[in-house]
Amino acid sequence: MNAYLSLLSLFLPVQRRDTWLSEWNAELWHVRSECGWVAALHLLRGALADARELRALAQKDVSADRAAVRPWKQSWIQPLALPLASLLIMACAAMCVPGARDVLLSQSYNAPSSIVLLKDAEQPTIAYATYSEWTRRPQLLFDEFAFYAVQKRYVNGERLRVATASSNLLRMLGLGGPAGDGMYLSYAAAKQLGYPSQVRLGASMVRVRGVLPRTTLKLWDDPEVIVLADRLPAGMHGHVLGAVAQGAPNINWGFVVTYSKQPPLHIHVTPLEERVFMPGRAFLFACVILLFALPGTRPLSREDGPRMPMRLRWRPTIFVGVQVLLLLAAAYLGSLAIAMSMALARPEDVGGPQAFAAFVLLLPTIRLTLRSNRHRCPCCLRKLGHPARVGQPSAAFLNWYGTELLCAQGHGMMHIPDMPTTWFSEPRWMPLDSSWAVLFSQ
Ligand SMILES: [Zn+2]
């Protein structure tokens, strides 16, 4: 019998085992000597029940202790951890995608709004002779033109897209200083060639005058090397850029150039801004759509705006604002990484996927954030807990019926009506004064 009790004691916590065993051994000795073996056997059944109960109580204490050891679960730091983690993950993702990294690390490029790309409606390119004639004729629509033609040539043994351009091209694009001859490398080409000071182009050595910034501008044919020259060989065919004059009529859809002895030339016009990827615009568009979608998918709850003094409102508002800002930054980086990883050829095609990705990332996360901040103490920003039902549905005339939530730090209680009445239609914050502090000292 003593061995049976020793066996039962093994199921108990170590710190209680010896005491429990000595007590039950003493009880067993007493019952066996006074009442006999049959009574002792009955006593052992009671020992089994006692051991079970003690074990259940010990497990309950352990789980309560664990909850107390992890106070961060209820603290205000925990809601910030998820947005911060997602921001770090998205930042790493954006830095791993080459296109997204270039956008983040490059200087922002604002394309001059007056610059347009001109294209013959029937031919892929415009003849240099036509361009020369336009520059000689007095113009009403344009202040000036630039010309470039792209060919694949060997530069230091690498086959690159080399643009031979009029000397004012970079100045018109807002990328270079005064006009002048010379060779300019794109950032990617300079990196590929090892940032040379001069390169071999065909049979001659050419000095490199500069490296273009890491912008997201893509001209037609995407030149990697630009060679500026005052005079270009006649007979070339290439692309023409024009600087629209101030006060010129709207030519967004193109125009027709008429000649006396030749058929008219139909010119298509593409604003340069459309050839520049502006990630901020696509993201802003997604945010505007989100503003309309959010109330549609998540009706404003009565619990969203509890009635409380103004001095207590700013702290929860700033807290939610910080979370939303972190989520916006994470969604911007994440959507940029997703869009640029698709490796679309035309920069104007990247905006759509980025806006869609940003919307898909933002909608559920913002929803969850707003939902998780509903029941939060305005003083310590901890989650309110210990819900208690108050009142009866039939007694809402002189009393209230709903749920009462309590701040574990003793700052106050939130009364949420389950059945709104004319005098109690929205949640109310009931602050507790210092006289209640003794109840929350633990
Ligand atoms: Zn509190």
Which features would summarize this protein structure in a list?
single chain, 442 residues, alpha+beta, 4 domains, eleven-stranded mixed sheet, four-stranded antiparallel sheet, 11 helices, 42% helix, 21% strand, elongated, binds zinc ion, transmembrane, MacB-like periplasmic core domain-containing protein, membrane
Number of helices, counting only DSSP H or I runs of 4 residues or more = 11
Radius of gyration: 38 Å
The secondary structure category is alpha+beta
**Hetero compounds:** zinc ion
Sheet with the most strands, sense and barrel status: 11 strands, mixed
**N-to-C span:** 44 Å
The amount of helix comes to 40-55%
How many β-strand runs? Answer: 15
Work out the count of structural domains.
Answer: 4
Question: What percentage of amino acids are in beta strands?
Answer: 15-25%
Low-confidence stretches: none
Order of helices and strands: HHHHHEEHEEHEHEEEEEEHHHEEEE
User: Mean pLDDT, as a whole number?
Assistant: 82
The coarse overall form would be: elongated
Keywords: Membrane, Transmembrane, Transmembrane helix
Protein name: MacB-like periplasmic core domain-containing protein
Organism: Terriglobus albidus
Transmembrane segments: 276-297, 318-345, 351-370
